[in-house]
Amino acid sequence: MSRLTEQDKQYLEALRASEFQAIDEFDKTILALTGGAFGVSFAFLKDIVAPGLIVNKGWLMTAWIAWCCALMANLTSFYFSHLAMRRAQREYRRGERDEAKLSGFFGTSVMWLNPSAGGLFIAGLICMSIFVTSNLRDSRANPPTSAAPAAATNAAPAAATSAAPAAATSAAPAAHTGTP
Asked: 3-class DSSP state for residue 124?
């Protein structure tokens, strides 16, 4: 095996730094997107779909569970990464240069948690897409009947019916009292 030159070592160190920066950005992106997805899903429920017309609620619940798990995996990954780096620093200070890697339980966990968070986020997106599609399709097939126009329609005949006897009873005495 050939010896690494100083230029090779610098290149490898730049690659390592880029790798850590990329995974850090990945973690932050998953965190931001998952939080935003929750907000959008609540807005969809509030503003687009009437509460009584929601169909396929299981897809919504599955999306929320997947996003909660993605957030937990992401946050756990942040903390385990910190613990793995601390362990590597301790090993390095003790002179264990070859073992001073991001390995062990915490390092291995981070390697599993990061892709899991991404996969769970995507699973949540797929479930939410199915939920939204089915609710939009159902709302187009069965347009909602608003309760306000129905109440106003029912109230108008009731008001006319109740007003008619009152008008008839008040009109009759007025006709009799006008003539001596």
From this structure: helix
CA atoms within 13 A on the CB side of 86: 8
Distance CA 126, CA 114 (A): 19
Count the neighbouring beta carbons within 10 Å of the beta carbon of residue 167. Answer: 9
State pTM to two decimals.
Answer: 0.65
pLDDT averaged over consecutive 10-residue blocks of the chain (180 residues)? 76 81 88 90 80 85 95 92 85 69 82 94 96 81 52 43 42 44
Residues 51-67, buried b or exposed e (16+ Cβ, 10 A)?
A: eeeeebeebbebbbebb
Cα first-last separation, the chain: 130
SS3 content of the chain, % helix, strand, coil (to 5): 85, 0, 15
Quickly tell me which residue has 């062990």 as its tokens. 104
Write down the domain spans for the chain.
17-143
Q: How many CA atoms lie within 13 A of 112 on its CB side?
A: 7
* DSSP conformational letter for 66: H
Compute the distance between CA of residue 73 and CA of residue 80 in angstroms, rounded to an integer. 10
